[in-house]
């Protein structure tokens, strides 16, 4: 059973609507009335028996926040589900899985380094790959106007997959 939902993103208004912050966008949509408190190098809230965590470190230090929360509550690795952007999936494709490659995602690498495992559940939200230019710049850019139109549907699908996650893993859905 998932006891800790981790939503990855970067702090600060400049990153608020960027591709790398799609995890935080899901948290804000799914839990609009959540009361977030600062703890564990992040923002923490609750949804019934599930803890919610938005690490407020930058992406490449997300693992510090996850580890601190895990240690405090005594969560096991298989009780964690991380919601994050994924370059390896086309925009609008979502995949719920346990473990797997990290695809160069610095937030996931940090979590793996701090919890000493990659066998946590993940909701991968496809943001696509840049056709040219650097990946680092691409993930910190806003979505294209066409993607912005579809983004609410992608976030709705992510919310539905999280709701369904408690009964069926792994799952893949494509919206666009």
Helix/strand layout:
Layout: E1 4-7, H1 22-30, E2 37-39, E3 42-47, E4 50-55, H2 62-73, E5 80-86, E6 93-98, H3 106-115, E7 121-126, H4 135-139, H5 145-165, E8 171-174
Parallel strand pairs: 1-4, 1-5, 5-7
Antiparallel strand pairs: 2-3, 3-4, 6-7, 6-8
Helix pairs in contact: 1-5, 2-3
Question: In summary, what is this structure?
Answer:
Keywords: Cytoplasm, Hydrolase, RNA-binding, tRNA-binding. About 30% of the residues lie in helices and about 25% in strands.
Descriptive report:
32% of the residues lie in helices and 24% in strands. Helix 1 crosses helix 5 (145-165) and helix 2 packs parallel to helix 3. The chain has an eight-stranded mixed sheet with strand order 2-3-4-1-5-7-6-8, sandwiched between helices. The protein has a single domain, classed as Rossmann fold. By secondary structure, it is of the alpha/beta class. The protein has helices spanning 22-30, 62-73, 106-115, 135-139, 145-165; strands at residues 4-7, 37-39, 42-47, 50-55, 80-86, 93-98, 121-126, 171-174.
